[in-house]
Predict the 3D structure of the following.
Amino acid sequence: MKKQTRAIHTRFQSPDAYNSLSMPVYHTAAYEFDNANVMADAFCGRSSAPDYSRVTNPTVIYFENKIKDLTGAKDVIAFSSGMAAISNSLMAVAGAGKNIVTSRHMFGNTYALITSTLSRFGVGARLCDLTDLAEVEKTVDENSCCIYLEIITNPQMEVADLRALAEIAHRHNIPLIADTTAIPFTEFDSHALGVDIEIVSSTKYLSGGATSIGGLVIDYGTCEGFGKRMRSEMLLNLGAYMTPHAAYMQTLGLENLDARYRIQSANTQALAERLRTLPAIRSVNYVGLPDNPYHDLARSQFGPTAGAMLTIDLADRDACFSFINNLRLIRRATNLFDNRSLAIHPASTIFGPFTDEQRRDMDILDTTIRLSIGLEDVDDLFDDIRQALQES
């Protein structure tokens, strides 16, 4: 079956008592067992029966199984947020004296996690240009525990060569860990590109219109010991498992993801092309544009679509604030890939707590607006942007 069909028709783990077509929401903390032996088997992982909803829940397991079926992964764990998925994954591979090879081009909280939070536990951050393979080679050393990156950086819109990075990582016997949130995993095969561990903020495309918060760790089974550590240590000891209601909402979102994404990616492509006609916009950054420096690489890795995030640059910070204030249809909000289109000024919000020097190092410009494009009619979106610029 095609992926869209499989996303809808995954079988339940156990028959439902009332033959429900949708997986019920199991809002329960604990489960009763028939006897002590069955109970011991569940708690020690000798059976697939849920034991406690902090680590196993039927609604969440069903969601995880859908992702496993669609990706071919060995295991999938659903977490309470994208940041929980990132932090649990990195802590599973890192340790005191180890270092993470990554880029300065990252989402603000991920950057802070790697450069600040983990550093307090003796984990180093080795920042380099991941598009410069010679520099990556020089940066990886005997203490590196992984190469980590976003497949399209937020908001710099940079794309690195996953195959080449995987070759470097595997030659050094470390995993390539990729945050693939920018393009749905239904659109491309990250494991075929060499990714060992895929991280997704399911808050974005999967939630079906910003209905819930969540994150996914998609484990392809090629990093020795990772899966066992995630299940027996991180999941048990850190308590960041997804809630059943979030899993229910995101299961529904996954079922209609294909239809929504086709509209969103087409809207973003059309809008990026039209925005170039507006004199007030200094530049439009979208990897779907043929003259974008990452266009060819992105198409070879992710297929014909380029996601639903773009950035524009205006004259200065004041012009950006005026533009945002004048929007009438596009919402002033954070998040990505909602059904609604969203606008944010990253330098003063997501990256606001950083110093000017840190923002310069991360190439976060005062002139940049990030747009997440939704399901509205593209003419209405263009008209709103045009009027907001005219009133600025």
Remarks:
- The chain has a mean pLDDT of 96.
- The radius of gyration is 21 Å.
- The CA atoms of residues 205 and 268 lie 14 Å apart.
